[in-house]
User: What shape does this take?
Amino acid sequence: GVEVAVRLRSTRPPAPALLMRDDQGQIWVELAASEAGVSPGQACVFYENADARSRVLGGGFITATQTLLEAASA
Assistant: This one.
Protein backbone atom coordinates (compact mmCIF):
# COMPACT_ATOMS: atom_id res chain seq x y z
CA GLY A 1 0.00 0.00 0.00
CA VAL A 2 0.85 3.67 -0.32
CA GLU A 3 0.59 6.08 2.61
CA VAL A 4 -1.70 8.99 1.69
CA ALA A 5 -4.13 11.38 3.31
CA VAL A 6 -7.82 11.19 2.39
CA ARG A 7 -10.68 13.62 2.70
CA LEU A 8 -14.14 12.13 3.12
CA ARG A 9 -15.95 15.37 3.96
CA SER A 10 -15.25 18.85 2.66
CA THR A 11 -15.44 20.31 6.17
CA ARG A 12 -12.84 17.96 7.69
CA PRO A 13 -9.08 17.95 7.17
CA PRO A 14 -7.39 15.11 5.27
CA ALA A 15 -6.74 12.06 7.47
CA PRO A 16 -3.90 9.50 7.24
CA ALA A 17 -4.75 6.34 5.31
CA LEU A 18 -3.28 3.47 3.35
CA LEU A 19 -4.21 3.21 -0.35
CA MET A 20 -4.18 -0.32 -1.79
CA ARG A 21 -5.16 -2.14 -4.99
CA ASP A 22 -6.36 -5.74 -4.96
CA ASP A 23 -5.85 -8.49 -7.58
CA GLN A 24 -9.05 -7.45 -9.38
CA GLY A 25 -7.83 -3.84 -9.74
CA GLN A 26 -10.19 -2.39 -7.14
CA ILE A 27 -8.88 0.38 -4.90
CA TRP A 28 -9.16 0.01 -1.12
CA VAL A 29 -8.58 2.73 1.47
CA GLU A 30 -7.77 1.79 5.05
CA LEU A 31 -8.14 4.73 7.41
CA ALA A 32 -5.57 5.06 10.22
CA ALA A 33 -8.34 6.16 12.63
CA SER A 34 -12.04 5.41 12.63
CA GLU A 35 -14.41 7.79 10.88
CA ALA A 36 -18.13 7.73 11.71
CA GLY A 37 -20.81 7.86 9.05
CA VAL A 38 -18.81 6.83 5.97
CA SER A 39 -21.31 5.65 3.36
CA PRO A 40 -21.44 4.44 -0.24
CA GLY A 41 -21.88 7.34 -2.64
CA GLN A 42 -19.60 9.72 -0.73
CA ALA A 43 -16.51 11.07 -2.45
CA CYS A 44 -13.02 10.17 -1.24
CA VAL A 45 -10.13 12.39 -2.36
CA PHE A 46 -6.51 11.18 -2.06
CA TYR A 47 -3.76 13.64 -1.17
CA GLU A 48 0.01 13.24 -1.12
CA ASN A 49 -0.01 14.06 2.64
CA ALA A 50 -2.11 15.91 5.24
CA ASP A 51 -0.47 19.30 4.62
CA ALA A 52 -2.92 22.08 3.73
CA ARG A 53 -1.13 22.68 0.39
CA SER A 54 -0.74 19.01 -0.47
CA ARG A 55 -1.08 17.79 -4.05
CA VAL A 56 -4.25 15.91 -5.04
CA LEU A 57 -3.40 12.42 -6.29
CA GLY A 58 -6.90 11.34 -7.29
CA GLY A 59 -10.19 10.21 -5.88
CA GLY A 60 -13.40 8.38 -6.45
CA PHE A 61 -16.74 7.47 -4.96
CA ILE A 62 -17.15 5.00 -2.10
CA THR A 63 -18.93 1.84 -3.23
CA ALA A 64 -18.77 -0.12 0.04
CA THR A 65 -17.52 0.20 3.62
CA GLN A 66 -16.23 -2.34 6.08
CA THR A 67 -15.20 -1.99 9.72
CA LEU A 68 -12.19 -3.85 11.11
CA LEU A 69 -14.58 -6.01 13.12
CA GLU A 70 -16.47 -6.98 9.94
CA ALA A 71 -13.18 -7.70 8.14
CA ALA A 72 -11.94 -9.91 10.99
CA SER A 73 -15.09 -12.03 10.96
CA ALA A 74 -15.13 -12.47 7.16
